[in-house]
Amino acid sequence: MLAVLAPYSPALVALILLLLLIAFATEIRPPEVTAIGAAGLLLVLGLISTDDILAAMSNPAPLTIAAMFIISGALVRTGTLEAFALKVTGLAKASPVLATGLLLVAIAILSGFTNNTPLVMMMIPIGITLAKELGERPSKILMPISFAAILGGTCTLIGTSTNILVDGVAQKNGLAGFSIFEIAPAGIVIALVGVTYLALTRRFLPDRDTMSSLLDENESKRYTMSIFIGGTSPYVGQIASEIDLFRNGERRLVDVVRNDVPIRKALSEYVVRKGDVLVLHTNEADVMTIRERGKLPLTKSEDSQQFVPMSSHRSMLAEILLLPDAHLIGQSLKEAALPQRYGIHPIAMHRRGSNLSEQYDNTKLQVGDTLLLEGAKTNIRRLVEGENLMNVSEPKTRGYRRHKAPIAIAVILAVVLAAALDIMPIAGLAVLGMAAVLVTRCIEPDEAFASVDWRIIGLIVAMLAIGTALENAGLVEMMVAAATPWLSGFPPVYALAAIYLLSLMLTELVTNNAVAVVVTPIAIQLALSLGVDPRPFVIAVMFAASASFLTPIGYQTNTLVYGAGGYRFLDFARYGLPLTLVIAITSITIIPLIWPL
């Protein structure tokens, strides 16, 4: 088939690439699914071979990234990162401004040596705690946390999967590999400029309400009570919303269980039936009244027992964030059956800047969604641990292996030091570090492999295969040949700026790892065609592909804080645009100074 399609291969690959980018931007399907589907199509059409797929899998980038995920997971599991962050936030009462600045600096530093996604996941509840200490809304601190992690990731080669992937693609295209601190001189300057902006401009961030803040603070002190409807009740057959009981401001119907099946949807249209169990949310005084009377005062006579109290427990409201490896992703709330499995009742859902209170039962859950849940504290904790979720109001939901922390710290320091001394390629060192934290039980095997974001690994392998298709079809050379005449009459810094801006625009529309694979070969070939060193061009791709500050969907850490902070979509553009411009100017200025063109 390859021979038949050979004359048309550039056009076909270009069309598939265009459709892929559109699918990324419109989020028709998750990016890893889209990329794998595109790679499969290229394989079917004969535009890539099985050997090309295997070559993509043998690239050092996916293995290195997976190993670094596990090492980062060990640092989280041993409480190393949290202990460091909590010491910083402990300064909040003494010096709020200093505490905020130090937290952002600490996040940037930590992000240079650990994967920024688990780092931000851990920092979200800490940031919310800090916001409470400062008397601020979480929206004043969560976006800067995400941006600080992004900036810090550009300081070392292992700070982000994008850097590792760009390095792998560059080596595939004939460049010498980057050392772990080679990009640090420029990265540190860029990070300092960015963190300074974040620390000085937090007051310009919006005051946004999260779902839990929309409800009265005393809500968390109320009770959930289950009540059985007896056959003598005159309200059997009536619509629940028309009964005075449910119009009482101190009582709220949150669920109905009929034949052991919760009926939460359209409660305003629910018709009461004999044998139903009502789940009411009410205050402590009302619970005592119900218990003492053994019934609810629905009529003046109160002669007959119409409702029988079954059980009550102290309930709380919890705002739960869906992490990248949450077990509920892809399920609807109806399918998850939280009331039956955990005794927890969903109240509302937040997605893409909107708080949804109804008609979300059948919506498939996604990364970054936040759920407002009601139930007993022990049940919520059991849900969080069992489904790998995050309670954003609690910095910690499980015990840490703190006695293993020195080992985890020693492992990451050894990896960094050995990489700096060029003892072994980073891929080998990452594997050795992964082996060390597993053998010493800093993290258990199931926890280790759960800490790897396999969606990113799948996306990277698929994009590497797609990158091979671009090379096979000669598209890279064609694009460079078209751009060279336009840029050859200008100083090389203009070409560097063009590559940076191309990467920057694409990373806001598609995934940063996809940008790394597509743009890096173009950057190298363009530099060679202009007769300049391609290394600074590759570094420009690294920095620009990570500089995602304009949308909540361009970078996964932005997606995580999007729901937790109650942000709206345009909040990122308003706050991130000046930062994007400052970082772009700084990057384009400093890169040629350190790596002359």
Unreliable spans are 216-220, 297-305
In percent, how helical is the residue content? Answer: 55-70%
Number of helices: 25
Which structural class should the secondary elements be placed in?
alpha+beta
Biggest sheet: strands, sense, closure?
A: 5 strands, antiparallel
Q: Kindly, what is the distance between the CA atoms of the first and last residues, rounded to a whole number of angstroms?
A: 43 Å
Radius of gyration: 27 Å
Could you give the count of β-strands?
10
Q: What's the overall geometry?
A: globular
Strand content: 5-15%
Number of domains: 3
Mean pLDDT: 80
Task: Give the spatial strand order of the biggest sheet.
Answer: 3-2-4-1-5
Structural description of this entry:
The chain starts with a helix and ends with a helix. It has 25 helices and ten strands. It folds into three domains: 54-210 and 405-594, no CATH class; 223-314, Regulator of K+ conductance, C-terminal domain (Alpha-Beta Plaits, 2-Layer Sandwich); 317-391, Regulator of K+ conductance, C-terminal domain (Alpha-Beta Plaits), CATH 3.30.70. The protein has 597 residues and is α+β, with helices and mostly antiparallel strands. Helix 3 packs parallel to helix 19 (454-473).
